[in-house]
User: What shape does this take?
Amino acid sequence: MRTEKPGTWHVGVIGGSGIADGVELDDAQEIEVASPFGEPSGPVTTGHIGDVRFTFIARHGAGHRIPPSSVNFRANIDVLKRCGVTDLLALSAIGSLREEFAPGHFVAVDQFIDRTSARASSFFGPGLVAHVSLADPVCPRLAGFAAEAARGAGATVHDSGCYVAIEGPQFSTRAESLLYRQWGADVIGMTAMPEARLAREAELPYAMLAMVTDYDCWREDEAGVEAAEVFAVMAANATRARSAVKGLAALLPQVREPSPIDHALEHSMATAPAARDPRLVAMLDAVAGRVLRPTGD
Assistant: This one.
């Protein structure tokens, strides 16, 4: 497991399989990293943009072969943690639930409603119980830099938005879309959860820069969402997303000051040390080793 020097930025990026290819990393390497939580979506690509190390993983694998419900979110986060990532930027396509969030716009998501039901949502479980705070699931520092970088790339950016995560792979019904609007959700997608939850358990400050591809089907006088429409807007926005990642490297302060999220597990362990499952403790060496190792290690 790689550990960065204190004060050093190492940004993990979870996004489309083509994002890393267009960013032009210095000293780029593609590396297979194993996880005790199963197969990640694919290898990581790591390298530098200026003085900042970036490590990319394609959420849906090469060629977008993995559907949302089959993404191994735990393995992806675990692998990035093993690579020494200090902060995590997620890039994602979303549908809009608000007129003002138009296709082509970017949203720095800051809240989530989780409607997923078939995904492993925690690294912890029987034999090792932990409860992290998720009241504010996004790192405001990283989200602010990401939003500024997207603006620098020419995008229209909304600085906040509530994302409702659905199981998929189907798009929502009109009744569901209207309900989510009543709940106060602004955008809709299929991949932010449990990704954001797991990032917090791994003590990784997380931000999501989401790209609006369509209006969800709440507009009753219009046709429903079609995948071809989504893919077309995603392709048009890919260049801007790559430019935003490169812009982020230039915006980050030279020294990374500590974040409270770096110690999210500090008082979260509920299981007494003597009662902890040794197998699960071993699996969590990267995610939670900082708080699970005996004093003095």
About this structure: The mean pLDDT is 92. The longest strand covers residues 87-96. The chain has one domain: 10-287.
